[in-house]
Structure formats: C-alpha cells, structure tokens
C-alpha cells in the first residue's frame, strides 16, 4: 500500500508543480502499475491521479480522450507483466507515448474548435502537436527508465540483503 500511495503522491505533485510541457511521470506510473501492481491498479491509479489533478488544472472537453490514453498504457503493463524485460518496457513506453499523442490530439480535433472536422483538419492538428510530443516522449522515456530501473535496483538490493538459507 505504501508503494501505491507513493506513486499517487508522485503523480499528483508532478502534475501540479511547474514542469516542461507534457513531461510528468504519470504515464510511467500507469505502465508500472500495470506491470507490478494488482491488475485493477493499472487503470485505477493513473485515473485517480488525473481525477484529482484535473479538478485543480481545470476540466476540459478532451479529458475523456486523455484518460483513455492513460488507461490504455496501464493495460499495456499487463503485456509487460507476462515477461518483464527492458525491451518490453521500452516498447510499451513508446506505445504509451504514441497512443497518448494520437488519442489526445484526435480528441482535440474532434471536440475542439481549432481545426475543421476534415482529414486535412486532423492532419493539421497532429502536425501542430508535434512540438508537444517531444516533451511527452522524453518525459515518458526518462520517468519510465527511472521508475522501472529504480524498482529493479531496490528489489535487487533487498534480495541481496536476505540471509542465506542453509539446507
């Protein structure tokens, strides 16, 4: 329970303090929750973080799309859980970043008023969002490496501290 509380506090604080555009650990937390926590937490934890912080950051009409992308990333953790490897973690992290970009910007195009609801308007929306993807990608990459790497180090250290058992 301490781990869940720690991840929740980290996610909430990171979204509320000043940070580079789209660079928070929430996507990494979603992937981590899907990989290591009981299955329901893969969806509940990131959505709880978003629910608390979206109230403060002001609710907007693209929230359902944003939340869907985070829930999908939590579910990607279920795939990583089957065989936790650096390659699977990296692939799922990349898929999470790309799915967030595609889903959230589709929402901006669909329910927003900035772009015409045509294929050209959708294309314009995606092109205009590319600078923001940089923050998403590097933030997700950094926080995923830190969270999964830190967890691996801590669990390895604790395993090394176990007393030897004699037969």
Question: Can you tell me the number of structural domains?
Answer: 1
What does the oligomeric state look like here?
single chain
Average the pLDDT over all residues and give the rounded result. 93
Q: Stretches where pLDDT falls below 50 for ≥5 residues? A: none
Question: What's the architecture, going by CATH?
Answer: Orthogonal Bundle
Just give the CATH class: Mainly Alpha
User: What is the CATH T-level topology?
Assistant: Arp2/3 complex 21 kDa subunit ARPC3
Number of strands: 0
Helix content: over 70%
> Which structural class is indicated by helix and strand composition?
mainly alpha
Query: What overall geometry do the principal axes of the alpha carbons give?
Result: elongated
Largest sheet: none
Order of helices and strands: HHHHHH
- Rg, nearest Å: 18 Å
Percent of residues in β-strands: under 5%
Q: Please count the helical segments.
A: 6
Distance between the termini: 33 Å
List keywords for this structure.
Arp2/3 complex 21 kDa subunit ARPC3, elongated, 0% strand, 6 helices, single chain, mainly alpha, 167 residues
Structural overview:
This protein is mainly α and 167 residues long. It has one domain (2-150): Arp2/3 complex 21 kDa subunit ARPC3, CATH 1.10.1760. Helices cover 79% and strands 0% of the residues. The chain contains 6 helices and no strands. α1 packs parallel to α3 (41-57). The radius of gyration is 18 Å and the shape is elongated. It starts with a helix and ends in a 6-residue tail after the last helix. The mean pLDDT is 93.
């Amino acid at each position: 329970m301490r781990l869940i509380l720690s991840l929740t506090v980290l996610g909430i604080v990171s979204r509320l303090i000043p940070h580079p555009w789209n660079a928070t650990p929430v996507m990494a937390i979603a992937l981590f929750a899907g990989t290591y926590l009981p299955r329901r937490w893969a969806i509940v934890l990131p959505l709880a973080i978003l629910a608390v912080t979206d109230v403060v950051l002001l609710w907007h009409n693209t929230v359902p799309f944003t939340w869907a992308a985070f829930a999908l990333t939590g579910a990607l953790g279920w795939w990583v859980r089957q065989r936790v490897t650096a390659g699977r973690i990296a692939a799922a992290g990349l898929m999470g970043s790309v799915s967030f970009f595609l889903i959230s910007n589709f929402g901006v195009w669909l329910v927003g008023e900035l772009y015409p609801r045509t294929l050209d308007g959708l294309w314009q929306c995606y092109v205009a969002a590319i600078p923001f993807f940089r923050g998403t990608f590097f933030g997700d990459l950094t926080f995923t490496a830190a969270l999964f790497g830190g967890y691996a180090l801590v669990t390895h250290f604790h395993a090394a501290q176990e007393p030897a058992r004699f037969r």
